[in-house]
Design a protein that fits this description.
Blueprint (H helix, E strand, L loop, with lengths): L2 H11 L5 H20 L4 E3 L3 E8 L2 E4 L6 E4 L2 E8 L1 H7 L4
Antiparallel strand pairs: 1-2, 2-5, 3-4
Helix pairs in contact: 1-2
């Protein structure tokens, strides 16, 4: 499911809300999560999960094409950890 599918599904579910308003709300939520992560803040949505950044230290890697070594710079990787309720729903409350 992509963002437009999500917007359409919510608009069909909540028929009293215009599609444009739903689209703006979805965009705003994504923007707020992204902005918080840019500031290195953790975002937790109870029952759904949390978004955080994982640090990857600089390292030497191998270029598969040439076989030579390349320097990989440090970076932060976005990470999502599902909440207990989401895990239970996905696994059928097992």
């Amino acid at each position: 499911m992509n963002r437009s599918d999500l917007t359409e599904k919510i608009a069909n579910w909540r028929t009293h809300l215009p599609v444009q308003l739903v689209d703006e709300a979805v965009r705003d939520i994504i923007e707020q999560i992204t902005g918080a992560m840019e500031s290195n803040d953790r975002v937790e949505i109870r029952g759904f999960g949390s978004f955080a950044l994982n640090y990857r230290a600089p390292r030497k890697a191998r270029n598969p094409r040439t076989g030579g070594q390349v320097e990989v710079k440090q970076k932060y990787i976005p990470h999502f950890k599902p909440g207990k309720e989401l895990r239970e729903r996905v696994n059928g409350n097992k």
